[in-house]
Amino acid sequence: IADLYESGDLTQAAQDDLRPNATPTHNSKISLIRTDITKLAVDAIVNAANESLLGGGGVDGAIHRAAGPELVDECEELDGCDTGDAKITGAYELPCKKVIHAVGPVYHTRKRQGTHTKLLQGCYTRSLDLMVENGCRSIAFSALSTGVYGYPSEEAAEGALGAVKGWLDADEKRSGKVDRIVFCSFLEKDEKAYEKLVPRFFPQS
Ligand code: AR6
């Protein structure tokens, strides 16, 4: 993946890597991938945004650059977003159909308040609700809050996986509305955290 990324031709490789059970211990709807999320042709990708929803660095910057200027125009209409919540827009020049902008917690600030886990998990469950409400069947999450916002990788992966599992388990009809849930890492530390924790949350059936 790294070589292809540098050569700028990632799309086919990225799609090939989205096959079910990319590692043997996932249940059939969960995939892990390490790539640039802007290349993924899933129905919805989840951006790690801030409360303004007007763009920034990291994955937010990459998504806005790849989507083109119409994305920020639509975001300007949304009147921001609370931490722990998410809002949905079109995807413009991106290969996906929708972008879900989730605002993860700043780790150290929210840990002091004891709200970090609830806020991080809220981003995941709200994103899944928005996916279903908008007729999307596949979603790729970036590793929310694990960059600038300082969330430790394993703690973030544990929160993310727990939220997704809890959402799927809460209503048996939900699973039928979803084809694929992808956890898209960018750095090795996040990929390793998911590889370690996915079998615990989603053992092979
Ligand atoms: N594709 C997939 N993942 C990526 C990409 C990419 N192209 N680029 C970075 N990541 P961050 P946060 C990973 O800092 O911590 C922004 O300025 C990265 O390795 O983007 O939630 C916003 O506007 C990390 O694992 O988001 C906010 O102000 C993950 O994306 C603030 O940063 C999230 O890192 C949000 O901070």
TrEMBL record:
Residues 17-202 form the Macro domain. It comes from the Eukaryota. This is Macro domain-containing protein.
